[in-house]
Amino acid sequence: MNFNFDKNLAITCKSKSQKIRIMSETWVSQNIFCPSCGNIHISKLPNNMPVADFQCEYCGETYELKSKNGKIGKKITDGAYSTMIERITSINNPDLFIMEYSADLQVVNLSIVPKFFFTPSVIEQRNPLARTARRAGWVGCNILYSQIPDQGKISIINNQKISDIKTVVENYTRAKKLQTNDINNRGWLMDILSCVNSIPSIDFSLQQIYTFIDVLQRKHIENNNVEAKIRQQLQILRDKGFLEFLGNGHYRKISNSQ
Fold first, then answer.
1. Does the 183-253 domain belong in CATH 1.10.10.10?
2. pLDDT by residue (tens digit) across 207-246?
3. What is the Cβ-side half-sphere exposure of residue 20, based on CA atoms within 13 angstroms?
4. I want to staple 126 with a disulfide (CB 3.0 to 4.6 A). Which of 135, 140, 248, 252 is the partner?
5. Which of 33, 26, 38 is nearest to 67 (CA)?
6. pTM over 0.85
């Protein structure tokens, strides 16, 4: 695979961001398969599409691309906050490709975050633009990438080593077991999954999860029985094959390889 961007595509472009957008989107459309179904080609959508950049003609899954020179870090800058919240609470939100490229314009890493891992708690509202700005009062947002559970960060390319199509599709299919269109239920499930991930040991106890009660209460101020909600979500994770119940309030994490 050629990891280089085609610089000739952006010769006439004036802005750096426009150059990167054209080169990175073209590279994905020419090199990347559909993580959802494994179709070897995804099509670039017209530039005037309001949400997605690509679509798989076989399964219909849509994708958006965010790219950055160097490491993504903890946050990803995105567009209008209100638009983002509206998108993630709808059924039309695309999956998100995350690309890291080098200073010499080579793709280094690429991962996919399925749309059902996005919740309001991972969208950070930025301060409104100043009155003197051209778009005074406009409110943007950041995607808190570090707060998305690891199960929702599926690697396609890691240090220019491309993953097997079958492995990516299997990881995507497994992650899809967590899909729910109810945004409140999704928020709880992702928050509990993040708590489970933060425990370093494979085996853990219910009491260890209870140490996150204050954090969860701040995120879900409308809930008056957080302990019961925790137990409910752990049962869902067990039923979906992400946890094994060992008895007496003890659990074991189930990895992708099992």
1. yes
2. 999 999 999 999 999 998 999 999 999 999 999 999 999 9
3. 17
4. 140
5. 26
6. yes
